[in-house]
């Protein structure tokens, strides 16, 4: 049990750090216009030129492998609720590493999402 | 440019992203064939070459790549701690899709979970709307 918990936590941390790096790369990119396919193809060229993207992808890959390891030794109804901890991780990490604000609305909303996923996992 | 606001177009983008993600997962699940026996680490190349001919797998990979780009585009407009909770919409769309297309039963606990997630997304989006007023740093927004 503790082993699975440990694996899930590592996977969550990898994923969250990956997201942090994605966000850091997104901050460096010019904001793409959401209209038109041309804007997206230009964006495609830009995205993979940011080094942070590759760090993020690597972390995501590592997170996925550890997640698979956790899945092989536990059932989904346990891993899912524990996995929803990622929302807490993102909230905390993005506060300390990206300087994003945690206000009451965001905290309540995130906790509700975690509770919701836990319900779904238990059902 | 209004930054850090969860507009309807960004919400639509996130929901599309999530729905495509679920779709890609279904394609992968249908397309991937596991070799007989356990899947050890040294068998991974066999596994890959075995599945390289499946169009479903390739379509799944293509959708994943497009989704990744959309996600980065979303992140360039929104705080990470707002975008990630809002992206939990796939927990809502997937059971509803499963109910419609696969005629799966959705239990009351699952409905409760869906309701909680919707409420959560609502609260987080409220935070997104308050943010520009709350943070006065920068301020150079035309």
Q: What order do the helices and strands come in, and which of them pair?
A:
The complex is a heterodimer of chains A (123) and B (142).
Chain A: H1 2-28, H2 37-47, H3 51-72, H4 76-83, H5 86-98, H6 104-122
Helix pairs in contact in A: 1-3, 1-5, 4-6
Chain B: H1 8-31, H2 44-51, H3 55-75, H4 80-86, H5 90-101, H6 108-134
Helix pairs in contact in B: 1-3
Description:
- The complex is a heterodimer of chains A (123) and B (142).
- Chain A has 123 residues and is mainly α.
- Chain A has helices at residues 2-28, 37-47, 51-72, 76-83, 86-98, 104-122.
- Chain A is globular, with a radius of gyration of 17 Å.
- In chain B, helix 1 runs antiparallel to helix 3.
- Chain B has one domain.
- Chain B contains six helices and no strands.
- Chain B is globular, with a radius of gyration of 19 Å.
- With 142 residues, chain B is mainly α.
- In chain B, 31% of the residues are buried.
- The longest helix of chain B is centred in the last third of the chain and has 27 residues, at 108-134.
- Mean pLDDT of chain B is 77; it is low at 133-142.
- Chains A and B meet through helix 1, helix 2, helix 5 and helix 6 of A and helix 1, helix 3, helix 4 and helix 6 of B.
Number of strands of chain A: 0
Task: State the helix count of chain B.
Answer: 6
Order of helices and strands of chain A: HHHHHH
Number of strand segments of chain B: 0
What structural class do the secondary elements of chain A suggest? Answer: mainly alpha
Helix fraction bin of chain B:
55-70%
Could you say how many structural domains of chain B there are in total? Answer: 1
**Oligomerization state:** heterodimer
- Uncertain regions spanning at least 5 consecutive residues of chain B: 133-142
SSE pattern of chain B: HHHHHH
- Tell me the distance between the termini of chain A: 20 Å
Helix- and strand-based class of chain B?
mainly alpha
- What gyration radius of chain A follows from the Cα positions, in whole Å? 17 Å
Overall outline of chain B: globular
The profile of the biggest β sheet of chain B is: none
Per DSSP, the total helix count of chain A is 6
Mean pLDDT over all positions of chain A? 85
Helix percent band of chain A = over 70%
Specify the overall morphology of chain A.
globular
Q: What would you report as the Rg of chain B, rounded to the nearest angstrom?
A: 19 Å
Beta strand % of chain A: under 5%
